[in-house]
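#struct-help
A.M.: can someone run this one for me? Single chain, 371 residues.
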Amino acid sequence: MTNHLSVMTKEKVSMKKSLMIVALAMVLVFAFSGVAYAKITNGYVSWATASANLDGTVATPHSGYTVNTEKCAVCHSVHNAAVSGTAWTGTDPWTARTEETQMLLRSSVANACIYCHITTNIGGTQLYNANETLWTNPSSISTFEENVAHNRNSANCVNCHAVHGANTYAGAAASKILKYNAASIQDEIIGTDATYFAVYGAGLYASAADAKADTGALGKDYQVSVFCTQCHQNYSAASEATLNADGDYVYGDGAYVDGDPTANKQYKSHPMKAADALFVAAGATYTTGPVAWKASTTCRSCHDAGLTDEGVIVTANNFPHYTAGAFNFVNVAANAAATAVPSGHDNGSDGMCLKCHVQDATPTAGVGANF
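D.P.: on it. Structure tokens below:
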């Protein structure tokens, strides 16, 4: 009997030990599950925080990704991207914008750039005067009635910029992350790479590789000109060149057939070249000297309004996004010697021409003076 009781006691002790082990295991399971299901912190980081971790690559969240950088999380949150109905306050890390989140961004893909570059100063330069309305609908602003800015009505940010820095101009305009020869544009408008540079890059670059890599003093303006002509096919190195066999400017033409050169109009455009000492053009009667006193070699030669490398600033005058007080990003002047100023939205267009085609304030040469 005594032996039997002894055995039972040992069994009870053994069972108690087993129960304690099971209980401890359960505690550990629940402890770990508590950690696994805990509310994790928001995945977005500020660029100021991320840039402190750079390993010597370009100081931008849009390129230079390595195992030692922290850039993706500036725009993407792996587990805590905002959903529609939330609103970013600037202090609450759990909310973002009011659009449905796409690609785990702070907002939609189309509007992702405005968080850093309009509504906050995380991206340094705040465009559109830090006023989102100027981007969404500038024509609604009483002080700027023309819809001539690049905005959501005409072009989303991602139409022009490659946010990850892929296939962009790598030379003087590298910091602008401008899309290079986008396939959709190339296929729809210009056909082949060779055609594009032969027709619209003539006089600037000998090849596509030269255009992408130019680091010269004028490289940025040259690259921007080639970039702009992907959509605005107005490049001509000569005064009498016929442009755009596919017919860009045929608004309201009932005969226009998209992509059919035989059904579309061709046109001529202002030449983009150095000022000639002797102007020659069909029908011209003046051939004794220059007719312009400034070059028009790049888009910025004429579309000169707006800052391009302004640094950290809130600006309402940034080319080619939005330029308050200037029509089509063009400044005006009475002559080539005068300082060009914003045109205003109620002025005529003569000042655009006079700033190159009148020699000086007391002209003996120029339009209205000797031709």
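A.M.: thanks! Residues 2-36 form the longest helix (35 residues).
D.P.: also worth noting: The CA atoms of residues 170 and 207 lie 14 Å apart.
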